[in-house]
Amino acid sequence: MASIIKANELQDFGGNSIITSDGAGTITINNSALKMTPAFEAYLGGSGGQSVSDNTVTLVQANTEVYDTDSAYDTSTYRFTPQVAGKYLVYGSIQNESGSGTNLNASYLYFKKNGTNILETSNDYYNNQIRADIITGDMIVDMNGSTDYVELYGRIDSISGSGQLFESDTQFKRATHFGAYRVIGA
Length: 186
Prior knowledge:
It contains no helices and 16 strands. The protein has strands at residues 9-11, 17-21, 27-29, 39-43, 50-51, 58-59, 64-68, 73-74, 79-80, 86-97, 104-113, 116-124, 132-143, 150-158, 165-166, 177-182.
């Protein structure tokens, strides 16, 4: 036996609206505790990529926002500083280019919280060099909701030591990107 409940608004005992419906199937979550925000995603825009020095940890300049629900990502400092405390899923990807055929020894991706490494991951090609790769990473990060920030960094180790870059949107659509969102229920 099935039941149907029809309502255009769900309220708590205090009369506060939690969820509303427009009657056409669109619902709106009104309680911020139920939203996975703040959230953002940005990518390295422009053409030509971001030049990087060989074997040097470099801040990824993800300068083009796809979305930023609470204006918590700064496209000039490339930092995500959410103003709501909680656990956040932070993710990133870097398309690395070594400049020529079999030149890439290794690529690295880092997340830094308040300037300190909290994740380092690598792809190792020392025994079989290639030209380019994509490296990804993700993790849950506790943020205090006021001063904590996270950043995406990368590093390219190449044989020649020149011509390295993080690929931009023109070459590979959003392959180099950075994002985060608050995890509810954690």
